[in-house]
Amino acid sequence: MIATLLAAFATAVGAVTGAAPAASPTPVATAAGPAASLPLDQAVGQRMIGSLPGTTVPDALARQIRRGQLAGVILFARNVGSRAQLRALTDRLQAERRRGPRALRDRPLLIMIDQEGGLVKRLPGAPAQSAGDLGARNDPALARRAGLATARNLSGVGVNVNLAPVLDLGLPGSYQRSTERSYAATAAGVSRIGGAFADGLRDGGVLATAKHFPGLGRGPANEDERLNRIDVPLDLLRATDEAPFRDAARRGVPFVMVSTGIYPALDERPAMFSERVTTRELRDVVGFRGVTVTDDLEVSAIAHLTPERKALASVRAGNDLLLFCQTAAAADRGAAALVRAVRSGAIERASIDAGADRVLALRAGLR
User: What family does the entry list (predicted)?
Assistant: First the structure.
């Protein structure tokens, strides 16, 4: 079945490299923002999150940052030796940014990490509990304190974005439930405890990310390894799976990560490659006005697609930030494809700038 899904998806996104694709549906600002004054490679750079292989900053990554070609980086356990080492690494990244283009010097890089708690925790320390543990306690005050402790843990080493909380339902048989990545089986429970955790992150000065829209709480598979097909009626999806994300949008969560799942009630493409999901459902129906971010574009579930195709499909769907979490080469190829697409007219420069402006506005608010 998965092979059939992948074949169907490859056909669906094949148009992204065609001769005359449709213009990007990403919302376009009505007035020119700061991105319009940037060179094209820098505007595209504001849509890109890179990664690094070890515990020091590679020269090539430092050059990219100095050239304004990245909005930030994502960190993993492979990048963590000690707290002192990690603080030195993030300080170096921000120092390179301050040596970059004048228009970007005062906008700190987004330094991201997955610090959910439980099985998904890249850095020792808070949170002490998994999402499942916090949900079982059903104490919003405790969850908020856990979020605050996590923010202090992260900010102490220069991390300003947590790719958490997971707002997927934890339904029986789902991967999120079996791994304790979900706070509850009900939308109300997820909103109550996950929302409190996000509030705690905000209290501590770290940006939260609600993930994985429109919800993976019915999926049996690890989303990095296989595409989950969430085949439920649209009214049920909206009433349950999407409900915690609506609540997060009302709370003003700054980021939403779009899932790799397939939701036939909306589209046969993975959500993060679907304009129907990423723009029309998340922005127009749910009302989210922050920054959208893909899941990792290098996971094995979509390894059959080239970095170029994934970058183009992600931007056309309406994602503001593209996560390339494994290799610098893939991120470089994705960015180069976007530059070529703008120059050829396949993607409008205004659509690149609209997403870049949202990212730049968010970065401007960081300390």
Answer: Belongs to the glycosyl hydrolase 3 family.
